[in-house]
Amino acid sequence: MTLRVLAAMSGGVDSAVAAARAAEAGHDVTGVHMALSSNPQSYRTGARGCCTLEDSRDARRAADVIGIPFYVWDLAERFHRDVVEDFVSEYAAGRTPNPCLRCNEKIKFEALLDRAVALGFDAVCTGHYARLADGVLRRGVDEGKDQSYVLAVCTPEQLSRALFPLGDTTKAGIRAEAARRGLTVADKPDSHDICFIADGDTRGFLAERLGAEPGPIVDASGEVLGEHEGAYGFTVGQRKGLRLGRPAADGRPRYVLDISPVTNTVTVGPREALDVREIVTERPVWLGAAPGGRFGCQVQLRAHGEVYDCVAGFRDGGDGLVISLARPARGIAPGQAAVLYAGDRVLGSATIAEAARVSA
């Protein structure tokens, strides 16, 4: 069946090959580049950043090679409100957000998809490494590039209008295919880290927006070990950048254990104090019927992170999903996503609200 497809083209190799594959499959494809910055830089900084003028030009050149119409849509205001401001407010509240999940949820599969449907398109095509068939979202075959984790926030209705043409191919295969197709982005480096923080300095980015808020860094007993310029500049599990005046008595490194925005306090301690066996989540999104009772599955707690066997179930009388891990996980912070799997199939996702440490 021929579909009218809107191909989201970032200017990178993945989205270019995805658009080419959709067109080759016989669909009526139109390319669109989302301008997500109101002041795009002329050139990216190495492999960091995105949404630059260079990226939009690369996307247009790829569309010309493929032979499809191409447009640039200005979504900068929506991106700033739903992704950037959310990122800042989450850190200010002592949580650790994942802006890639928020971008997929609010921009690619809400703002972009809603506009596409309103214009008569049947589906949106992206360069994500994931597989989708009959409403079932599965991991991409390239384990190192799999992006099912950041897509797990999408609803079944959104996924019913999505195409992920790259899920059955490795990254190396995609680059080779791009070269065969004559796409000049075949060797273009991937963007990394947070796209709207091109220099990678997250703490500096937050400080510019939240200002200095000095407060204590303490150990588990409450003893003051040092001072920070803003609790928002830390995340659970962090080791570097603590700038403490004196080492631990046993000489071992310290890690961030807790961030309290109410008291503006950062608590640090030994690595083993980060061990977590139970996680309480909120706002679950299921890609099928919500399971009842307790059930066994696997959970992934960060993008490209480890997978843990677990048992999950709802709290009595509430919608908070409790996930009990078969072995401890470390560095689990509120605000991150817990994505549940059955093998390579995505069952759903939820936002981490609390993490119960073994030591507690």
Q: Please provide the ordered H/E string of secondary-structure elements.
A: EHEHEHHEEEHHEHHEEEEEEEEEE
pLDDT averaged over residues: 90
Biggest sheet layout:
6 strands, antiparallel, barrel
Multimeric organization: single chain
Q: Which CATH-level-2 architecture of the largest domain? A: 3-Layer(aba) Sandwich
Task: Give your account of this protein's structure.
This protein has helices spanning 13-24, 53-66, 76-92, 99-118, 148-151, 156-159, 171-180, 202-210; strands at 4-8, 28-35, 70-74, 123-125, 130-133, 136-139, 162-163, 215-218, 224-228, 255-260, 265-269, 276-286, 295-300, 307-314, 321-329, 337-342, 345-357. The longest helix is centred in the first third of the chain and has 20 residues, at 99-118. The radius of gyration is 22 Å and the shape is globular. It has 8 helices and 17 strands. It folds into 3 domains: 4-187, HUPs (Rossmann fold); 212-273, SH3 type barrels (Roll), CATH 2.30.30.280; 275-357, Translation factors (Elongation Factor Tu (Ef-tu), domain 3). Helix 1 (13-24) packs parallel to helix 2 and helix 3 packs antiparallel against helix 4. It is an alpha/beta fold and 360 residues long. A 6-stranded antiparallel beta barrel has the order 12-15-14-13-16-17. ATP binds at residues 8-15, 34, 127. Its EC number is 2.8.1.13. Residues 145-147 are annotated as: Interaction with tRNA. Catalyzes the 2-thiolation of uridine at the wobble position (U34) of tRNA, leading to the formation of s(2)U34. Its main location: cytoplasm.
